Amino acid sequence: MTFAVVVFPGSNCDHDAYHAAKHVLGQDARFVWHKETTLGDADVVILPGGFSHGDYLRTGAIARFSPVMAAVADFAAAGRPVLGVCNGFQILLECGLLPGAMLRNRDLKFHCEFVGVRVERTDTPFTLLCQQGQVLQLPIAHGEGNYYAPPEVVAELEAAGRVVFRYAAADGSIVDSANPNGSLNSIAGICSEGRNVVGLMPHPERAVEAMVGSADGLVLFESVVKSLASMGSHHAVAR
Amino acid sequence: MKARVFVTLKPSVFDPQGHTIVEALHSLGYGNVADVRQGKFFEIDLNVTERAAAEKLAADVADRVLANPVIESFRIELPEAGGNR
Questions:
Q1: If pLDDT is split at 50, 70 and 90, which confidence band does B83 have?
Q2: Which residues in chain B have their CB less than 8 angstroms from residue A94's CB?
Q3: Cβ contacts of B71 on chain A, cutoff 8 Å
Q4: What's the pLDDT band for B80 if we cut at 50, 70, 90?
């Protein structure tokens, strides 16, 4: 199946996502420049991390207006899998495919470190091979990952089981000391109402081989491959 | 006509930058500074001469792009009527 990795000016995790899909998983992968208006034969779309448009105005605020985003919105509306990582998550928030917004980290510091990320839900295409409550060790690298949404929206996300990932201690406990940025309810990632659009601040694509410190992120990519295969994707069957 | 747009975090949203600034001011001895909220300021040059149209255009731009309505609110200032700015 084909992974489409959208490239914005300032994306810097596009090659990591491509590498994870193409070289680690052995799937087809290709880059899609943000000025393109179609996603071609993509089976899954990844909005990668980075600093699209230099984070001018707000993180993700300008990327939202890139021509390719209309195609991404259509792809998402058709129920097909979209993963936004870090800046990709910020873009999903800015364009309204996911609710909420990012504030500066509460300590104003850019955090670049491994954190514990607890999987809250396995009923998304990107987590179906995870164990509920499993704690993944994933790197974060952001200055604005302090997830905020109005209280009623957070309540709605919690009630609908749309909080997919939470920052957690190694033993899985949700404690303030394991929350690197001040996110409400320790939210590290959420999904859309249809569960096919997932956004998270940690970087699974930077943790797909043990030699770089963790391979815990690979399961997200394996999950979406499995999800597409079981949905009978024409590409998956053929390949 | 030039419009000025002020974008600030909503009162209900914690402002880590404003909080840090007020703490710095307190440590400098400015105990009478009760709070600081940091925001953004935009000057927009509009090819519009009619006041109501300028206000509408500036509000549209502020609402769609300059501010994120989830966390921010905005205020628009236009030149005084009869002024020559």
A1: low
A2: 68
A3: 101, 103, 148
A4: confident
User: Using CA of residue A127, residue A72, residue B71, residue A52, what is the dihedral sign?
Assistant: positive
Alpha helices per DSSP H over chain A: 14-19, 68-77, 87-94, 151-159, 218-230, 234-238
**Residue A74 and residue A69: Cα distance in Å, rounded?**
9
How many Cα neighbours within 13 Å face the side chain of A101? 18
Q: CB atoms < 10 A from the CB of A9, how many?
A: 15
- Scanning every residue of chain A, which has its alpha carbon at the shortest distance from the alpha carbon of B12? A150
Task: Report the predicted TM-score, pTM, of the whole model to 2 decimal places.
Answer: 0.92
For residue B21, give the chain A residue with the closest CA: A108
Q: Quote ipTM for the complex.
A: 0.83
Q: Distance (Å, rounded) from C-alpha A229 to C-alpha A237?
A: 7
Judge whether residue B84 has pLDDT over 90.
no
Average pLDDT for A205-234? 92
CA distance A149 to A99: 7
